[in-house]
Amino acid sequence: MSDADDSTENPRSGGPVEANIPDDVETPDIEEAESADSDVEEDAKRTPRGLPLRVQDLRKEFGGITAVDGASFSVEKGSLTGLIGPNGAGKSTTFNCIAGVHQPTSGHVYFQGQDITGYRPHQVANRGLMRTFQIARELEEMTVLENMMLAPRGQRGESLTYSVFPGLRGQVVTQEEDLREKAWETLELFEIDHLASEYAGNLSGGQRKLLEMARVLMADPEMVLLDEPLAGVNPTLEHKLLERIHALREEGLTFLLVEHDMDIIMQNCEHIIVMHQGQVLAEGDADTIRNDDRVIDAYLGETL
Ligand SMILES: Nc1ncnc2c1ncn2[C@@H]1O[C@H](COP(=O)(O)OP(=O)(O)OP(=O)(O)O)[C@@H](O)[C@H]1O
């Protein structure tokens, strides 16, 4: 999926923005707009901190294609929520709108009660909502430990500040030590500490997935968006990764997972959101979803 043709992208890079409505979309009159604004304010107030993520009437158009068509859903704190749907249902686009990679055409994304619609990816990440990214080519030439130590949230590093205020240097050393310790602990948690000196480029597909996940945790996220985290992962590593996800969830971390493997979703997610043609078709636990005729129709032929 490329962003190159994303003609509706909002150029603003600051904080929360108004919905970016293209010229050819009718805008409501002032009275309606004011009432819509107050509804949104009311809704934001209704988003308690215990409900980290709320997507409301999300819409994303790419030129003439409507990829997400008014999707609304919430994710509860500490849950492992699955986002599924047939090919082209709008899952990745929704993910990217949440993570700030795409700017929604309209609608809102609230995280921990705050409207983060229109935030850029680093701003979303700074709020504690993070998605995994594939290890980029440049990072392949670094060791696993170096990958872990690279740019976590709040890292201070060497800078001009320390030549001006040399007294702060000691703090940097402590911070570097803390960072290293945390990197080792996280690698141990994912049982890839024995690969710490290995170049990331030499890892197997499954080991990379573990590293991608471990890297995200270095930033102390509140919530993690996982897009196909188990694709190409062998059953042993898959089991290990799922075990870690469940353990982290027990500690209060929240996950939203897009995964094509229905068995994984049905066996691991307590709440499942089904998208179809850019909209939320159904929501519920595995049994509810399995027995929903609309979901069966949408998948027609795929095993649930
Ligand atoms: N950058 C883009 N430019 C144009 N159309 C796009 C773009 N990204 C997605 N689309 C279209 O939007 C629709 C939804 O795509 P999306 O990738 O979000 O679905 P998905 O549910 O993640 O699909 P899959 O399971 O196949 O990955 C599709 O019709 C897709 O072709």
TrEMBL record:
<comment type="similarity">
    <text>Belongs to the ABC transporter superfamily.</text>
</comment>
<keyword id="KW-0813">Transport</keyword>
<dbReference type="InterPro" id="IPR003439">
    <property type="entry name" value="ABC_transporter-like_ATP-bd"/>
</dbReference>
<protein>
    <recommendedName>
        <fullName>Probable branched-chain amino acid transport ATP-binding protein LivG</fullName>
    </recommendedName>
</protein>
<dbReference type="InterPro" id="IPR027417">
    <property type="entry name" value="P-loop_NTPase"/>
</dbReference>
<dbReference type="InterPro" id="IPR017871">
    <property type="entry name" value="ABC_transporter-like_CS"/>
</dbReference>
<dbReference type="GO" id="GO:0005524">
    <property type="term" value="F:ATP binding"/>
</dbReference>
<feature type="region of interest" description="Disordered">
    <location>
        <begin position="1"/>
        <end position="51"/>
    </location>
</feature>
<keyword id="KW-0547">Nucleotide-binding</keyword>
<comment type="function">
    <text>Probable component of a branched-chain amino-acid transport system.</text>
</comment>
<dbReference type="InterPro" id="IPR003593">
    <property type="entry name" value="AAA+_ATPase"/>
</dbReference>
<feature type="compositionally biased region" description="Acidic residues">
    <location>
        <begin position="21"/>
        <end position="42"/>
    </location>
</feature>
<dbReference type="Pfam" id="PF12399">
    <property type="entry name" value="BCA_ABC_TP_C"/>
</dbReference>
<dbReference type="InterPro" id="IPR051120">
    <property type="entry name" value="ABC_AA/LPS_Transport"/>
</dbReference>
<dbReference type="GO" id="GO:0006865">
    <property type="term" value="P:amino acid transport"/>
</dbReference>
<keyword id="KW-0067">ATP-binding</keyword>
<feature type="domain" description="ABC transporter">
    <location>
        <begin position="53"/>
        <end position="302"/>
    </location>
</feature>
<dbReference type="Pfam" id="PF00005">
    <property type="entry name" value="ABC_tran"/>
</dbReference>
<dbReference type="InterPro" id="IPR032823">
    <property type="entry name" value="BCA_ABC_TP_C"/>
</dbReference>
<keyword id="KW-0029">Amino-acid transport</keyword>
